[in-house]
Each structure stands twice: as structure tokens, then as C-alpha cells.
Write a structure and sequence with these properties.
There is one protein chain. Helices cover 6% and strands 38% of the residues. With 479 residues, it is mostly beta strands. The longest helix is centred in the N-terminal third of the chain and has 8 residues, at 12-19. The chain starts with a strand and ends with a strand.
Amino acid sequence: KGFDSTTTNPISALAMANYAKNPIPELPLSSFRVVGGLRFVGGNSGRELWNGEGVNLLPRIALAYLIDSKTVIRTGYGIFYDTIGTNRSPAIQTGFTATTPITASFDNGITYAATLTNPFPNGLLAPTGSGTGLATFLGQGLSVYPASRLQPYAQRWSFGIQRELPGGFLLNSTYVGNHAVRLQINRELNFTPASYLSTSPNRDTVVNSFLTQSFPNPFSGLNPVYTQTISRAQLLTPYPQFGSIQEMQPIGRSIYHSLQTQVQKRLSRGFTINVAHTWSKLLDATQFLNTSAPTPWYGISQNDRPSRLVVNGLWDLPVGTGRAVNMPRAMNRIFGGIQLAGHIVRQSGAPIDWGNVLFSGNIKEIALPKDQRSPDHWFNVNAGFNRVAASQLVNNLRTFPLRLAGVRQDGQATWNLSGIKNVAIRESLKLQLRADCFNSLNHPNFNAANATPTSTAFATIASQNGGGRQFTVAARLTF
């Protein structure tokens, strides 16, 4: 039932006694604490996995005003929860499953404790259940939920105008906004404090050597997973007896603004078409730039697609008995009942995700003009990227953003075409023949380019998003 961050861990006394023999200057014995551990359902923790909310209110309001016989204005507002009446989460089986790591050597290869014939000289770790309490999974990583859970929800609002145009066309243009809060995101609880990390824009070998220096491990011998040495960076974490501790917290948020425009020609004379375009921007705070940061990074979302155009159309050819292009019944069997349909999608690409790259140039020079981009050179590698592996940042506070709105992967362009032939064999028996061509222009849609400066494949694209042109033929008999 979550992570207890204050209670003294059962191994505290022994660990403190060991640490007193070899303390480090940055962490005097008086400041060395071994606290925290997993809490399980039962006992003083109660029977519930977490404490949920009692009532979720979902107010909605909508208004429509008829300006004249052909024009309507609409607006609305509402609150929508991620789930209603429940908060679903995968069960965490920590303590009820066990993994035994292979520790080949405790002295950096001078001697070996494990061999190929006996890789686990101390045996396999058995699941402990909740019996060991706060000592469960010592030396290993944890994934936990907070004891009190909050339901994610979104406020949505819209304002639009609908107008009937000449020729049977209908125009609908609407502004739509969405503000989501309490989004569940992972937060690292066991991090090296930011005050010890380098703020240099370049690789800081002094700080890196300082944090990676090894010392006698005060936890060695208290659990089989502990090695004989421990780094200064690990000793300075809030819970040095554990590895990474990821807690799912309801602290994420997002904001979405869009103009959604649709022009529709309703079915008449065998023809209909629908053209819809969305121009939008999505910002969110769902990831941390640095594990020690107090709040998530706020910027362009991984799901942002500024432009999306969709065109759908159907044309029932006016050919056949009694149609505009009239023909005898015998010819109608061949040329009558034919429909042509199309589905076109054009969409902006997603912003490229970046690591903690070493960059000293102008961010605006990273993106290349469209006519200069290719799978072999998607963005400007000479804009200011340091590509030397030995110079890359380690134990530096990150300042380069997670994503840049102007540097995106390939957009999506798809043309799907269909031909349909309807044949009335008799009144109660009908046959439909259909031929579909997906990605009919055989347009390549690429995946994201490599964004690792030290890679030989930097700025190149290795694969496509989706296949090439495909044909399908089908027949359906209705009776």
C-alpha cells in the first residue's frame, strides 16, 4: 500500500554501525538515515489498496442559439473523469515475486563468487510476501502507488458556429479547448540531490568522478543483493538501501486548443463529401527534465499534431437504367450500380524526443526546410550538436528540452480509394463486389529519425510507419 518514507527500516541499526566505520564528508553519521520501505495491505495500513475519492461531480452545460434559419451558434462546457466510479491500476506484485541477480564478483573481478556451473552460489531468492515488511526488496527497484489516489479529469469547452451554405453544403467551425489535470505520471523518489549535480553546459569530469567514487557499502552483508562497494551518488539519495523508486503520482497536466472546421455536402444526386480540418496545439507536463525537479517539464506534447486534414467522399455514378446516363437492363448489369469512394488523410508529424544532448548552437537551425529533408538527412546535424561520445553529459542538470515544436518526424499522408459494384440478382438476393486500394499513391510515411548525436545513424530514418500500396478484393452476398 504505497511507500513509507518516514519509518525506520529494520536494517537501520546494522547499517549505521557499518557506516560509522567509513563515513563520507558530505554525509556525516548524524545525517545518515535508513528509513522507508513498502507498506502492505493489512494491519495498521487498513484493508484497502489505496484511499480513493468519495464523490466525483460531472457538471455539463450546453447552449444553442438560432440566429436565422440557416445559422446556429453553439457553446458548451463539461467535466469528464478518466474513469467513473473506479480507479483502475495494474496490481504491483512486489514481495510476491522474486528475481535473483547474478553477482559474479564482489571485488571487481579479482575473485569470482559465481561460475557458469554455479551462477547462484547463495541460492535463489524466494518470494517473501509481506512478512519482511519494510525490508522487502532491499537493494532493488520499486514501483509504488501513493496511499491517497486522485481521479484524473478534464475540463472541456467549445464555441462554434454552424451555417448552411448554397448548394447543399454545411459549414461547421468550432473552437474546442481541453484542460486535463491530475494525470498519473511516474516520479523518481530516490534521486541524488540536484545540489551535487553539475550545472556546467559541458561534461564535468570533476563532478562525475566525485559522484561515481566508490566507498565501503554499509549495507554489504545485510542482504545478498548488496555489493561490497557503493557510489557516493547512491549514498546521497534519500533511501540508499533501495534502487530506483518510481511512484505514480497525479501531478501531470495538459492543455489543448484547437479550431475544428468541417465542410459537408450531404448526400444528394448520389454524391456526398466531407472535408474536416483541425488546427491545434497540445502542451503537457507529464515527464521530468531532471529526477530532482519539483515539477514536471511543461512544453510541447508528444501527442501534438498541429494540422490534420481528412477528406471523405462517395460518388454513386449516375449510370444505369433510369439514371442520368440511361441504358438497357442488360447493360445495367455491367455498368450500373457502381460507386467510387475515397478517404484522404494528411497529418503533421510528432515532435522528436531528445535525450540529454550536448548542444551549443541555435535551436532554430536544427530543423531543415522540407525540400532539404530526406531519410538520410532529416535535420541539421551541424546546428551545434556535440557528437563526441567522450564529451557527452553525465551527472549534469539537464537544460535541453524534451521536445522542440519546430523539429518533427515525418507527417502522415494516406490516400485510400475504393470501387464498389452493387448487383441486384433478384429482389431478395444482392451481390456486392468491392475493390480497395490502401495508400494508393504508394506514399512512404517514415518513422522518427535517430536523435542520438553519438550514433552513426544520427538524423537518419531506418524504417517506415506503415506499408506500401495494398489491394484487397471482396464479395458479399446479401439475402
